Amino acid sequence: MVLSDYLDEVEPVTMMLVGFVLFVFPEPATSALGAGLLLLGSVWWFYEWGR
After folding, report:
1. Inter-residue contact 31 to 25 (CB < 8 Å)
2. Measuring CA to CA, which residue among 34, 41, 32 is closest to residue 14?
3. Which residues does 15 contact at the CB level (< 8 Å), separation at least 6?
4. Other C-beta atoms within 10 Å of 36: how many?
5. Where are the domains of the chain?
6. pLDDT above 90 covers what percent of the chain?
7. CB atoms < 10 A from the CB of 22, how many?
8. Could you tell me the pTM of the whole model?
9. More confident residue, 7 or 45
């Protein structure tokens, strides 16, 4: 197990974390942006997982 094997998962997980923080911020614009980042980060994570 080498740490460099998991570097591809860092970016999508970070995007999902930022999306979650924006999603719980109580303003409609940031919540919509956060939901979009959560969706994009999830898709990106599943794409990287299948490679």
Report:
1. yes
2. 41
3. 37, 40, 41, 44
4. 13
5. 3-49
6. 53
7. 19
8. 0.81
9. 45
For tokens 């979009």, name the residue: 36
What CA–CA distance (Å, rounded) separates 24 from 14? 16
Question: Alpha-carbon distance 30 to 13, whole Å?
Answer: 18
The DSSP string of 1-51 is: --GGGGGGGHHHHHHHHHHHHHHHSSSHHHHHHHHHHHHHHHHHHHHHHT-
**Which has the closest alpha carbon to 25: 36, 15, 33?**
33
Q: Are 16 and 24 in contact (CB under 8 A)?
A: no
